[in-house]
Hints:
Layout: E1 13-15, E2 22-23, H1 28-39, E3 44-47, H2 49-55, H3 59-65, H4 67-73, E4 79-84, E5 87-92, H5 99-109, E6 113-115, H6 133-137, H7 148-155, H8 159-165, H9 186-197, H10 202-221, H11 232-244, H12 268-288, H13 304-308, H14 317-328, H15 337-353, E7 370-373, E8 379-384, E9 390-394, H16 400-409, H17 435-449, H18 458-466, H19 469-483, H20 488-495, H21 500-504, H22 511-521
Antiparallel strand pairs: 1-2, 1-6, 3-4, 4-5, 7-8, 8-9
Helix pairs in contact: 3-4, 7-9, 10-12, 14-17, 15-16, 15-19
Amino acid sequence: MNSPPGPPGFSGWLDLASAPPQHLPDSTDAALAYVADALGHPVYTRWTLPLLKRGCPSLADAKRDHRLVFALLLDHDAAVEYWERGRLRVAAADGAPAPDTVLLRLLKQHQRFRFAPEDSETAMPASAADASPTALAGLGTPGPTPSPAVWLAALAPDAAGRAWLARAGRFANPSPVTNTLGVADDAQAVALFLRERASRSPHTLRAYLAELRRLIRWCDRHQLGPLSDLTRENLLTYRTALERTRRSTPAAGETRNPTHNRPAGLQATTRARAIAVVSSLFRYWSRTGYVIANPAAELSGGTATRDSWTPSRIMPASVLALCDMVVSGAAPDTMPALVWARRRAIWSLYRYAGVRLAELVWSEADGLPRLEADPLDQWTLHVQGKGGKRRSVPLPSLCVPALRAYRLARALPVCPSPFERVALIHSEKRDALGHSGLYDEVKAVLLAAEDKVAPGDLATLALLRAASTHWLRHGYARALVVDHAVPLPVAQTLLGHASVQTTAAYARTDLRQTRAFVEGSFPTTDQ
């Protein structure tokens, strides 16, 4: 990547989110205005008291909407409000950084912008060998869709793997008449499959890549392949091998016995997903004519696994109460107030919105997730789930105070504006906190809750150490379906489940409610 210019001049920076990508204006003021308009939040604003009065209906409104700026203007002639590391900061004019410094720092940290002079090549890597580790790490994050070269580099990171994938097996169809994909090797055919079936959702793309990597590693160990060379017998052997593959971590409530010779197989849901991805690949290849036969036909077990699935990773109310005590307490002495406010907000959203881990990852292209507050001060969380489906989750009033405190700590207005376009969860290193950062914040709460466990309560300690963000989602779903008997279609909408059968599975976690329904349907009569 080229180095950005030393003196002010921003025409070398490219906005990747515009269609087509375009260069920023050259002057600092024009570039600041462009970036602020593109991101939907202030970047650098110099305030004076007369300017503040002109921008607000009254001094009371100015004090409410620009609390920190108003306080500084009482003692200084001017104050500067500038964006840094996911939050608005306010400083007296004589102590604030220069506008070009603020803008350059933001451009370097924001994934939307890239330094690419107008006479340089701005396209994505043309080959898998040129894909950078940073690009590969971003495959699961929302944003501009990577090129097929990046996908292939994730599947086969070394030269030998790329050579293995860029072949055609015995079932590949060489005829240009019936091969509607118009490609001659597995690498190109896989790239087209991922583009059509998985590129619309970063969550789906990440899952498909993981399962294809699993299949490719198995083929490499058994000296099979390429993919279009696999027979039905090969795939049946692979399905059996999944049942014997050792999990990286024990299942919930399970202890690993090092003396036990038989390896623990993958969970049924993981095996079903792995086979479903393989089946989808070969079905796509067969229908488009890339292969002359489908060795994965009827390989998947259908919906039997989903129908029999019962969620088990649910934290008891007593354990959740310990975590809530941590979040409602004072911040640790060594933790900045902003970081603590962020942790409380993250916990509250996963706890009371039931969202998936990836659904709180910021997408610049979609402006999601985002918060909305109506005139009655009722808050709603808007997210994008699997398959690119958007949904709105009403937040209980119990969740709002932590969100208000976090916004205040970021110098944002207490209530989100209808046109706000700011990352919901900020990062100190870039524009927004990613998957691992969000996960670590939740795990930090679970770790701190261990100090509140009664001595000798090993069961609770084991639950806290095994729990994750998805446990909170399971708990949210169980609270809706079991504890409060929310109608299944409503719960399905709130959770973003594709099938109501998945939502109904939570009813199987508690037999008492179903027994009460049966007793109420057939009351006893006096003889």
